[in-house]
Design goal:
Mean pLDDT: 86
CATH topology of the largest domain: Enolase-like, domain 1
Helix content: 25-40%
Distance between the termini: 73 Å
Largest sheet: 5 strands, parallel
Strand order of the largest sheet: 9-16-10-11-12
CATH class of the largest domain: Alpha Beta
Strand content: 15-25%
Radius of gyration: 26 Å
Shape: globular
CATH superfamily of the largest domain: FAD/NAD-linked reductase, C-terminal dimerisation domain
CATH architecture of the largest domain: 2-Layer Sandwich
Length: 438
């Protein structure tokens, strides 16, 4: 099998000193977007640093010579960060420990003792939806729309559907959101979701909950109609189908490695992210929920450590969630519904952004922060926030939650004034005051 170590590097005669003056590192790929980005950077930079495979670096040098012959290349490195070489192409298993990478420069075969699959997902399709890459689209085709429509149908009330609904509504589009379940974002705290729904309706979004699409058709005037199972019809200038994601496993040839995926392309793994082949791991969206970028990176770190027998500590219960709606929702720990179902007693403290000086300065009347804690021990059980910057503000609560701290910590802590971090103190007082009145 060919190995990376066999590749050679073309020696440039364009100077050195990247360690002293590195301006920008370019990882060169043969994708058109990367080529365009390289050209743009060359036009605006006097000195450049390039990294990539030997072939990619040669291509970069040729491109630099064409676009800007007098450019100074400070350093050329065969390896990227941490000595990792990036190969551009499509990988497929040819055996339990072997892969074939097919790219624009042909095919290369590789063998490895450990393999990590992190191929992500793609938008799910449906035979009921005639995608045309114009006004009936999925989330990958958003930028292909010829213009922002005046009215839009969004099918799917999960994270992607709700995020895009917020974006379009903020741009002034009249959006109708169709979701077959009785509520949006079922894994999030009900109070936060209800607050989001209030803001969506305030932006003239129509929510069609408990409704399911039976078929979609394009009208002669280039409009779109969604026919619902309830016999209703919903019209608009465009339709975004955002019902689920499908694992990118079609070209992996998993069977050659003795692996398989479920009907949604998800690869089963254990707590260490091992597949049923102990030397093959899978992480990220391709294994399913929660499908968050931050969690996927942590799963990759854990899988890599487990692959090489390195000690690792990570608790999924301490992973935060960030939903980039408008306003943002972010949370960690248990929801009120989960604690109620589990029969666990709890108390709640709430602070509204409008009560805090920083919120008043910003004119933010929409945000709120909720602390959920155990009444006897005061241990923090959950933090839930909706509002601008919620995903940043959550990290204070995340640290206390991960260390099994109590809400009394927030009472005893001085926060900078004026900041939204003061919400923690206000919410803690609110919750503890409830206990004192019992």
């Amino acid at each position: 099998m060919d190995t990376i170590s066999k590749k050679t590097q073309r020696e440039p005669d364009r100077g050195n000193g990247a360690k002293q003056s590195k301006r920008r590192v370019l990882l060169v790929d043969d994708h058109p977007i990367v080529r365009e980005g390289l050209t743009e950077m060359i036009n605006h930079e006097d000195d450049l640093s390039v990294c990539g495979t030997a072939e990619e670096m040669n291509q970069a040098l040729d491109q630099i010579e064409k676009v800007k012959p007098d450019a100074v290349v400070l350093d050329i490195s065969l390896k990227g960060s941490n000595g990792i070489e990036v190969l551009s192409g499509v990988a497929s298993f040819t055996g339990p420990n072997s892969l074939r990478v097919s790219g624009s420069r042909g095919q290369q075969d590789y063998e490895a003792e450990k393999i990590i699959i992190a191929t992500g997902t793609k938008p799910a399709s449906s035979p009921l939806v005639p995608f045309n890459n114009r006004n009936i689209i999925n989330s990958d085709q958003i930028l292909q729309m010829p213009a922002i429509p005046k009215t839009m149908i969004v099918v799917g009330g999960g994270v992607i559907g709700v995020e895009y609904t917020c974006m379009f509504a903020t741009l002034g589009v009249r959006v109708t959101l169709i979701e077959k379940r009785p509520r949006l974002l079922e894994f999030a705290d009900t109070e936060m979701v209800e607050a989001l729904c209030y803001h969506l309706r305030d932006r003239r979004v129509t929510l069609r909950l408990n409704e399911e699409v039976e078929s979609v058709e394009e009208t002669p005037d280039n409009g779109v109609v969604a026919n619902l199972k309830s016999k209703k019809k919903v019209g608009g200038e465009g339709l975004l189908y955002a019902v689920g994601r499908q694992g990118n496993v079609d070209e992996l040839n998993l069977a050659a490695a003795g692996l398989d995926a479920d009907s949604r392309g998800r690869i089963p793994v254990d707590a260490d992210y091992r597949t049923k082949q102990p030397y093959i791991f899978a992480v990220g969206d391709v294994i399913g929920f929660p499908s968050l970028g931050s969690v996927s990176m942590e799963q990759g770190r854990i899988a890599a450590a487990n692959a090489f027998g390195m000690p690792i500590r990570s608790d999924p219960a301490h992973y935060p969630y960030g939903i980039y709606t408008i306003p943002e929702i972010s949370f960690i720990g248990k929801t009120e519904e989960q604690l109620t179902d589990a029969g666990i007693a709890y108390e709640v403290g709430i602070a509204y952004f409008r009560e805090i000086a920083r919120g008043q300065i910003r004119g933010d009347t929409t945000g709120r922060l909720k602390l959920i804690f155990q009444p006897d021990t005061k241990e923090l059980l959950g933090v839930h926030i909706i509002g601008e910057g919620a995903s940043e503000l959550l990290h204070i609560g995340q640290a206390v939650f991960a260390l099994k701290g109590t809400v009394e910590y927030f009472v005893d802590t001085v926060f900078n004034y004026p900041t939204l971090a003061e919400c923690y103190k206000t919410a803690a007082f609110n919750g503890l005051n409830k206990l004192s009145k019992m």
